[in-house]
Records
---
Amino acid sequence: MARGRGDGRRHASLRQREELLTGLLARGDLHLLVLASLETAPELSGDLRREIQLKTARLLPPASMHQAREVASAGEFVLDLLAACRPQTIDEVTATIRALAETRLEEALPVIAKFASDPRPRVFAELLNCAERFEEQAYGEAVLAKSSRTSLLVDGELGLAPARYLDSLKQLELVYFSADESLVDRYRDLRPVPDLRLSRWPEEKLSVIGTTFRLDSLSVRFMELTDLTCLGFVESVEELRIEGGALLSFAGVERWRESLKRVSVVGCPKGLEALADLWRRLPDVVRM
């Protein structure tokens, strides 16, 4: 008897929920948060679910982050709808990415990846912002690796993940922000780009960079260096540019004897003295 009363209450509750949703649909008063009920009420009739899906599709793509969060509250239910929608404006694209990411479902990754080749900076920034909602390797391989971006500025931990996974990356600028032990593995697996720019790194912290680079171009900007021995992770380089900061000696440049073709020193207080040292070590290098 107890089971019968329980079943009766459950069916009554289901009828009440369907009546509420049907009334909202009839009035055109479908608040997006109502969609979340679909996750907890799979027993809703097929006709009602289809009608809600049709109404929801007309509300997509989301045009703001507020709408994105509301859409994501419906969970797996909205994945197909978001995959089918066609956002056009920058607000629609970024909000659609956010809605997909807020579901935190692995099935959302290939849908997010469709936006990875969008060249607009705000879209790329949103892709980076959403990375923390997924396991890093899964997101990196499924989404970031699909990006067509060729240059990247890394000035915080958030930028280190794409520096590992962007297949099309050609130019990487690393601005010093931390060399904490927790980041060692990230600095070891950077994309070996042909154009590397280092900015404001303390000389003693450069040892954290464990990736080996064979460079067309290396720029060292606003750094106080005793010599070049601290750049041991650079196996070869064709063009070296020292900009700002200070370089007391070109000691260590000899290991690039076979590759180095051009060197320029700009804005260094003792630049001429450093260049004189370079001439003694590698007289055939072109000074610019």
---
Amino acid sequence: MKIRRFSLLIPRSSIKWQDEQLLRIASHFSFLLTAGLPLLTALDSMLKRESRSMKKRLTSLRHHLQQGHSLSEAFQQLGLPSFFLFCLRMAEMHGDYAQAFQTIEKYYQERIQMKEERRQLLRYPLILLTFILLTFLFFLLILLPRLSSFYASFHVPLPPLVQSILQWTEWLSSNGWIYLLLSSFLFVLLFGWLIRRDQLWFTRWMNSSWFPLHSFFQSRFTLFFTRALSILLQAGIPILQAIREMILSTPNRWTIPILQQIEEQLLQGKRLTETLEHCAFITDECAVVVAIAEEGGGVGDQLHRYGHLLQVQQRKNWERRLQWLQPVLFLLLGAVILIMFSLLFQPMFGFLQRL
């Protein structure tokens, strides 16, 4: 089978798709295609129900399909997210579009649910964090300069820390914020240029033990790897061809060097288990699951189950971190108030002692 290059760059359309819209599209096609309806018939059925703006997009989709474009290419013209396009590209290999839309439907159902849970968990911590920032800015920009003028009128010396804060505030209130923004912008540009110039360098940097987000990228790559590879293996695609398709169609550019290293190891005749054991971006549990599956068969099914368990585990970890965030913010608020109180009234206590 000839492998075609599939670009996941953002196409001409700059339409912003909401998760609820993508879920509605996936649910509609999943239900009708599973019922046995042809693709264009399912699309026409959806055209009758949608709003005017959605009808315009779906009409454009039908036009691209009638021109001979594949389903993934037609959806790409509408600017759909890369994961949506990736699943459709995989479906074009194994021919089961209903399964692809079911995967997309389940993904966006879990995504919407997770976003709602995060929104509920983050609402109160964000209110606390906003209050802390506003309190700090009020102290820094309003209260501290006025109290320093008051102390200066009585010739009360300020602590060295307060003097340093005042100097930094004066510099920031003049043109300092412009230099900070410009420096941050240049740093982001330089970092992005380095990543685009050498993706392998970025991958090696994430692989280093001192990289603070290594575990995050490891779990994220493992989840992507298990999801994508399980879909392809369950469709009967050979392992090497599946890895090659993942390289060509991955939604995340930083995963390409990792997948290429896995492909090279497989081309050298190594088993998938041995390859994953030496990959720093694959969790140890995933390598064990693959080793058991290679002995007993059904690697695709086992990867699918493990991917689901990994996603549940990531969600629980996220919830646990957010639960710890609230007491940490309370402690931070208390520390900010204590520091402010000490800085403001320490000179006054010294002045009263001299009296």
---
Amino acid sequence: MRKLLLKASLHLIAALPLAVVQVLGSLLGMLAYVGSKQYRSLFRPQYESVVNARKLPLKLWSAIRASGMLFSDSLWIWRNPQKALKRVEVQNWDVVETAIHEDHGLVMLTPHLGGFEIIPRVLAQHFPATILYRPSRQEWLNEVVEEGRAYPNIHFVPTNLNGVRQMTRALTRGEAIGILPYSITVSVGYGLGWLAAHIPNSRARVVKTNLRLCFPHLTEIEIDNLALEHWKLFGRSVESNAAGFGLELGTKFFLSFPSALRLILAMENPAS
């Protein structure tokens, strides 16, 4: 029932002008803030922390309305991609073209600012791209989101190990990938660490040897589990640093492990 209602709402929004959709989104944002204690407890502290850190004027209700418009804009873009693209003005696109033509892959950090759902559609006009996203825990909602986001030349992958493998392969093909430059990258880092832990190399042996010396009372299974946690945290640190200083460098560092690409291929094609 909820899925049908949401789809009906999408069809309704698609038929409305964007200005009307944004008014509705503004109202939804205010209703969500007033009606949900949990939403208020998450929204206000985060907003105020940014305002205080950047010494910006406090415009709480403007931010609340904008958050609702962000949601309604996304729904409108899903159903009206061509109309949305006509409204887009891209600056310094030559920088992107130069980077993608180097054939080393392109990492694009795409934060949730404004109508961020338009970004994959802009990329798709020029080259294929793989976009990382976090699937909804509710299956019915996830189906609606995937259907709305579907677009030619764009491949959405989830924030799990399979998604990490697909992004890595896209980079090795010289294609573009898009990720969020904050919490979701933690999942990517854990995935990189998991892969690093299962690649035979001297570094992995050194980690386990050190753990045996420091914790002689642990069993081999406990040593293996502790080593895995080490590599997951290591992968997260690489990802975190990469988000700030260049994700491409972090990815290249990960791929410098011996047999990394062969392991990825073997995991995707276990029969071969």
